[in-house]
Amino acid sequence: MGWAPTWTQAMTDFRGEDDEPPFDDVTVRMTVPASIGGSRVRVELSNRFADDPVRIGRCAIGVGGQFAEVSFDGKPSTEIPVGESRWSDPADLAVGHGGQVVVDVYLPDPTPYASANGFTFDRSLPGDFAGSPEFPLEGSAPAEINASREFPATNTATAPEPGGAGWTLPAGGPFLRTVEVAGAGAKAVVVCLGSSSTAMGWPQYTAALLPADAKVAVVNRGIAGNRIRMDAPRQTPSWGRAGLSRFDEDVLETHGATHLVIAYNSNDWGLPGRITPLDEMPTLAQLIDGYRELLERARKEGLTVVLATVTPLGPEAADEPGREDLRLAVNQWIRTCGHEFVDFDAAIRSPADPSRFEDAYAAPDHTHPNVNGSKRLAQEMAVALARWQL
């Protein structure tokens, strides 16, 4: 069928965290952007992190206000064992480049919020509303779906200020790992592996900047808090397994992957001694070895690798010379190691103080890019993809 991913997210472990209450007789609606178009669509639902199987009562996919109920091996419901995933049967819905795909999942039984990513989605009042043109939001009266919601969806508690000064939280949600399309004839599939700045949406913005006839899928495998070398601390499992640990699952399992962008923040050396034990602080040699291992594993699988320089640390960490020195040294290695790279650091740092974000591109914590910052990174990546004739 020539299936290719049009949207992905990296699943991570939310057990023991209080981001969302459990589900029970509710429908979850996730509205995600398509990076490439196709004539058919299917979804992958994952129970990667859980203590029990998850029962999917019903699932529907919507495009342009038209919904199709999808089955699993010909059956309307399915049970996903612990640690596994299930693909839906295809739906005959045409997906356009830059369009939106709505995925409804009805969860009839008590189901913890476990395998997910910390992004925005809607949950219904009690009942099965999969594929319903009217979706009664939890705590509100019935409301028609908003099929024109602009990506990325925004967390209402931290809405962007005028000029793009706020945070971005892309659409995503529980259990939904992949949306694929058939008939796209994808020329390239660019997998973006990284941490919070990646998870916050520059890959999706990049896809939106590319022309439809480019047929390049740009998909996101970022996890907030993620590190290259170390798994998440026990108290915050949602920061995910190390990039080295999840590489096979999040990169090599992406159908048709041709390119890999490695775009991490400073978590490897920004967290130790502040949030995680100081003895987790890496040396420069250990950091470079981590990058080199990712590069080598990708090359063995025939992937073209692109490195991204590391954007500024938060003000508190940047004022500690050892941490800023590591960031500068890692960036120097990225710029001179002989691999293709995109200079994210140069794109959004302050000309007056290169250890800080340019104010126009900084989120309120001055540790992450705001809306404008994410779009600026996307512009850099889109230019690079064009330079490489993708």
Structure description:
The structure is a single chain. Strands 7-6-10-3-12 form a five-stranded antiparallel beta sheet, with no helix packed on it. Strands 17-16-18-19-20 form a five-stranded parallel beta sheet, sandwiched between helices. The protein has nine helices and 20 strands. About 6% of the residues have low confidence. The protein folds into two domains: 155 residues; 201 residues, Rossmann fold, CATH 3.40.50.1110. Helix 2 packs across helix 9 and helix 3 packs parallel to helix 5.
Helix content: 10-25%
CATH class of the largest domain: Alpha Beta
Query: Strands across the major sheet, in which order?
Result: 7-6-10-3-12
CATH architecture of the largest domain: 3-Layer(aba) Sandwich
How would you state the average pLDDT, rounded?
89
Oligomer: single chain
Mass-distribution shape:
globular
What class, by secondary structure content? alpha+beta
Largest sheet: 5 strands, antiparallel
Would you list the SSEs in sequence order as H and E?
EEEEEEEEEEEEEEEEHHEHEHHEHHEHH
End-to-end span in angstroms? Answer: 22 Å
The number of E-state strands comes to 20
Radius of gyration: 20 Å
- Uncertain runs are 141-162
User: What is the CATH fold-level name of the largest domain?
Assistant: Rossmann fold
> Can you tell me the CATH superfamily of the largest domain?
SGNH hydrolase
How many individual domains?
2
Beta fraction: 15-25%
Number of helices: 9
InterPro entries: GDSL_Rv0518-like, SGNH_hydro, SGNH_hydro_sf
Pfam family, one: Lipase_GDSL_2
Protein name: SGNH hydrolase-type esterase domain-containing protein
